Every structure is written in structure tokens, then in C-alpha cells.
Amino acid sequence: AQVQQQAARLQDRLSHVHHIVGVVSGKGGVGKSAVTVNLATACAMQGLRVGVLDVDINGPSIAKMLGVRAYTPKVTPNGVLPAEGPCGMRAMSMDLFLPDDATPVLWSAPTQQEAYVWRGTMEMTTVREMLTDTVWGELDCLFLDLPPGPDRLPNIAGLLPFMAGVIMVTIPSQVSQLIVTKSLTLAKEVLPNRVIGLVDNMQGYACADCQTLRPLFPEAGSGETAQSLHVPYLGGIPFDPALAQAADRGRPFVLDYAGTLAGKAFMQLADAV
Ligand code: ADP
């Protein structure tokens, strides 16, 4: 009965959220969070009501990248009020509940082995609670910044049967193609027909002075990987040093750089999603 009640509460909360889009990656550090933040902002700049939930519990970075790290979540009888970011974006993240940036989220368990077994369940329980307890209000799209790694995909699929789909972020290196192939194969299995597509991050270097695209990785992109797995290819986002600086400053890059090569790429991605 308790499980049914939980499911009903989650469904009720999300009945005002029109689309839920998960952002995943085969491995960490490929720019999944940076892509989530800028894609969400690009959608918000186009007039959509957007929310972002940081589900990358062990490496939360959304609050910082959106400039809301100092927000303390307010609890109301109806639930927890999310932080408000640029363009009215609503954001919730585990690190808003942590006292400082040095404190990790610990899954305490008697042994390492149990900690590992518990990790998946605990992570997903936390995510479910954050989804259910946040007062999202009416949203056109809620983006979930999901933890990296294919091993999480089955749990994620089980948690959100009503998720519209997932976007897979990768970088155009051979090493990443291997892991993204694995991840996409699994994603197709556990989320049938719900892989929205593959995005290449850091595809070329956007030269700020000449506004041309220079090569960065030897591989041109992941178009062929996407094609061979019958997954839509959503295009590439260049590496732009201003994007990394903006993320560190806590201001989404696209807000100020929509006209640059990387900015335009995010706007196009928002159209494609
Ligand atoms: P992940 O979420 O995959 O672990 P992040 O989004 O945290 O990766 O990105 C890792 C670092 O690379 C961050 O400092 C981020 O600002 C930077 N970064 C990501 N994508 C780009 C890009 N296209 N251009 C410049 N810097 C980027």
C-alpha cells in the first residue's frame, strides 16, 4: 500500500510536467552537466517553462552551473520550493542540502560490498523523493542530469516509466565511442523507443577570435556510431573556453553567447529535442 501511495504521489506531482528528458553519458567528464544546463537554458530562452533536477548525486554540479548554489531549499506544507535560476528555470539538487562543497553524499553501509549493492537503490530512492517532494509547478520540460555509466540505466528506466526519453552525451574520441556503444545498446534495451538521440560534445574547438571551428579530437564525430545503432544523431557542440568559464562563474553560457558557434549549436539542439 505504501509503494502504491508513493507512486500515486509521484504521478500527481508530475502530472503538471509535460515532458521529462533524461541526460545520460557512458562516462563522466564528457560535459553531460554542461550540456544539460545549456540545453535547458536554450529551451527556457525560447519561452518554455523549464526545470532541472540534478540526479548526479555523487557529482552534483547543476546548482553551481546555474548560479543557485547559495539557495537554501524552503520547505512548505506542499513540498520543497526549488531554486529559481535564469529565465525562471526551476532547479533542485542534492548539493543544496549539503552544508558546503567539501561534504560528499555518503551512503553509509556496514561493508563496502553492501554499500555498493545499496548504492543503486539508495540513489533511486533519493531521486524519487526529490522528484516527488519538489514543488515543480507547471513545466513544459523537466531535464534530469542523470549519473554517468551504463550500469545506472536499468534503475533509471524502472524509476521513470513515464520519462519521455534520454539524450546520450559523448565526445568524439575512439575511447568514448566504445563506451557509448555499450551504453546506447543497453539504453535501447531498457528504454525501448525512448532514446531521443546522441549528442557530441567538444566536437571541434570554437576559436573565439576567428569564429571558425578547429579540429580537437581525431574522430570527426559520432554520427556513424548513432547510425549503426539506429539512434538519431542530434549534432555536435564545440569546445569553447568561454563555456567552461561561464560554468565556473555560475552563469549558463548560452545566455550571453547565443550568437557564437557553440551558442547556436545549443539553440539547434533545443529545436531538435
Ligand atoms: P560531466 O557532467 O560529464 O561529468 P561536466 O559537464 O561537469 O561533465 O563538464 C566537465 C568540464 O568540462 C566542466 O568544467 C565544463 O564546464 C567543461 N565543459 C563541458 N563541455 C564543454 C564545452 N563544450 N566547452 C568548454 N568546456 C566544456
TrEMBL record:
SUPFAM superfamilies: P-loop containing nucleoside triphosphate hydrolases. The keyword Transferase does not apply. InterPro entries: NUBPL-like, P-loop_NTPase, YlxH/NBP35. Transmembrane segments: none annotated. GO terms for biological process: iron-sulfur cluster assembly. Keywords: ATP-binding, Nucleotide-binding. This is Iron-sulfur cluster carrier protein. It comes from Entotheonella factor.
